[in-house]
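From the pipeline queue, job 12 of 40. The input is one protein chain; the requested action is below.

Action: predict structure.
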Amino acid sequence: MNLDVDWGQVPDSVKAAVDRGLRRAQRDALDEVEQILDAALRVVERVAPAEPRVADIVTEAGTSNQTFYRYFAGKNDLLHALMERGVLRARSYLRHQMAKHADPAGQIGAWVEGLLSQLVRPDIARPSMALSRLTLPGGIGQPGRAKLDDQLGEPFAAAGRPRPDLDARAVQHTVIGAMTRHVGAGTIPDETEVRHLVAFCGAGVTSRPVPAGEG
């Protein structure tokens, strides 16, 4: 089979057929990966706080070891992908919630409440807590956390805050700290705590910044 193809000599209809085949192969691969990730999440939730076994994930997904290792180098590679997918889904949800508000304080409050809902909503609390208990080399890492807190920079900047990046980091640390405490204790924040955190973090929009050298 000749792989040294002169694509300038290939008819457009043939190129279109190849493109369709490649797109179909990518969709099929994505479907297989999503199937494995969904199965892994169910296994993680079921066996937590123990780490899941590849054999159990493969069985849950109804696939084979060959298919699993076609996409993932090993269990840690899979779990990192699972956590990253969770971060991106949370980011999309937070963006949707923030878009419902026009004012910076409302947007920040929506971000705080939306992130805390990862523990409060029954449909996502159990898998979120199960994933949070896993210990992976390097964890989800700063890039994963930045994908969440960079959403806060815009409302703080719109409010005229001189260091919106530091404001965003402070809010993120506050909320993630509360979530970590609850995950460790196996509890969820009640309505009073959620409302307090929303009000506390939103208040930073209108507070007077501390000049350099003070405090």
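Job complete. DSSP finds ten helices and no strands in the chain.
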